[in-house]
Protein: Cytochrome b560 subunit of succinate dehydrogenase
Amino acid sequence: MLARVGLASVQRPAFQACANAARLSSLTLLRRISTVKTTHDEAQEILIAQRKNRPGSPHLTIYQPQITWIMSSFHRITGVFMAGGFYLLTCTYGATSILGLPFDSSVLVGAFASLPVVLKVGIKAICAYPFVYHVGNGLRHLVWDFGKALTNDGVYKTGYAVLGATAIIGSYLAFLW
Structure:
């Protein structure tokens, strides 16, 4: 019984201190905020001064390159370049039809057929490798969406499988006659 009385007497002042701190913190929330009108130039100076005090985010060079973020970067890059090429070709078709210029599939095939073999293979490789890589990595992401191969081992295995498939299938498409 003495232990209980001693414990309660120790807890009560601690509880009161917490309650008092809670009341004080609720009072500080009612503090009025004053604003000062500034011109656009003054506001810009304030923003520049604040940005100078912000910490810079770490750059990619401090991290050890890993297949996961390298493949993710190249997936985005190949997607952007393929979309840009598609839009460029589509807009060219549209613009030449509006302007009445002779540009259609037969013109493209004739121009490509007249190129030397080395240039043909180079152009096909430039188109085939990013396409195969992007499709393969997209299928890899679909596998992940189904909840498969989400372990570190699975991520690395599927990554190397995509790179291998890109090398084999891309080479096949580039050298296909």
